[in-house]
Amino acid sequence: MHPSQSELLQLKNLGLASVNILHSIGIRSCEDLRRVGPVGAFISIRNRGINVSRVLLYALQGALLDVHWNELDPDLKARLVSEADRLLSSQGTE
Question: What CATH number does the domain located at 3-91 have?
């Protein structure tokens, strides 16, 4: 296992499948995920044609906050979805 894969796997909410998806968009470390942000990562994943649900968006945010995705504040979830939807629609992809 690559060291950065192990680093990402230490984050809450992220399993091997999620880490492999993150690697496919160039996110290889916790710092990469922080820099890109959960919405940016989610948009990049969707733009690669990988069909993921909003749960991954929540999981990425939770990973950065060290909180299980299901425990995120509903208002925060709504803001994440709103921002992702806005960016996706501005690209003409939903």
Answer: 1.10.150.20
